[in-house]
Amino acid sequence: MEGVIDGDTRALLSEDGALDWCVTEFVRVVDARLPPRVFLRHCPELATAGSAGPITPSATPVTLQLLGSDPRGLAANAEQAISQGVTRLDLNFGCPAKTVNRHDGGASLLRTPERVYTVVGAVAEVSQRHGVSVNAKLRLGFDDKQLALACAQAAEAGGAEELVVHARTRREGYRPPAHWEWIARIRAGVRVPVVANGDIWSLEDYWKARTLSGCRDVMLGRGMLADPWLARRIRHWLETGGERLSPTPWSARSDMLIRYADAKRDAGMAEKVIVSLLKQWLNIMRGRDSEAAARFTALRRETALAPFVAGLSDLGSSSDSTSSGTAAHASSTLAG
Ligand SMILES: Cc1cc2nc3c(=O)[nH]c(=O)nc-3n(C[C@H](O)[C@H](O)[C@H](O)COP(=O)(O)O)c2cc1C
């Protein structure tokens, strides 16, 4: 997730081993081949990648995501990424940002399935030559859902080995509800595995998304930031045949936020920037957790790191609150 999930976030969120794989933020491709440092910045795990490709410190595989509309540029950059050790590529057909769509990237390609086919085909041609898999991340459409299946079929025909479907159109943005039942229509029309994505915040959401989409696997986005134990919760529920983990206490959430701040400080990031990243994460947590909401309100004007961190960890306010967390599924993936 652009501006939200980076190498440090991936390391923290994957450390309990419950995620099957993670995705980087998108690398935006215009036409020219990008220098190696761009790929390294988006995927610092490449610095230590072995034959298994980039992995987090807990050995969770990391997929690199590309975004663009120029088949030759994308193919050249896929080649570059592979030469640096990438073993799984993902193509973004979901980004709703106006700047990206104006330049014909992300969700804007969903207006023309033929272009989805061409873009995936160009990257798959390179990937297959190197034994690297390519996936596509799709929304249900741009303005409406008329081309949802056609775009999924185009991605499959182009060579995508797996499709992740965010169950909304670009016009629907991030507004609930996610239309998981539409993913079932896509599944019925393609042969490759389909992963359901969108609005999975809890075990109940997980199960509902699985039931309505028919997908075995889901991708977790904001829900994983709101409850960093969501994937573990799901996996435990599945592995034990229905046993629920207790809700995530605030102390565990604040510990993760503070360790994130520590990692950023160790990397030399400016304190103000660290505070704004922490606020962004806390902002996602607060919708699902009353303690996070209280801390967010108390700290929203704070710009200095030390008092911000103290405000996260102080034990003076409410007790360990919890999210409404619960979730279920066979494998989960962290959105880029
Ligand atoms: C701030 C933000 C940044 C995102 N960046 C990306 C991205 O770089 N690539 C991508 O495929 N999806 C991106 N997404 C979309 C998410 O991966 C996901 O599809 C969407 O948020 C729905 O899932 P969720 O409800 O579980 O968050 C982003 C979403 C948000 C909110």
UniProtKB/TrEMBL annotation:
Its cofactor is FMN. Its EC number is 1.3.1.-. Residues 315-336 are annotated as: Disordered. It is an enzyme of class 1 (oxidoreductase). Residues 1-250 form the DUS-like FMN-binding domain. One of its GO terms (molecular function) is oxidoreductase activity. Belongs to the Dus family. DusC subfamily. Belongs to the dus family. Catalyzes the synthesis of 5,6-dihydrouridine (D), a modified base found in the D-loop of most tRNAs, via the reduction of the C5-C6 double bond in target uridines. Specifically modifies U16 in tRNAs. This is tRNA-dihydrouridine(16) synthase.
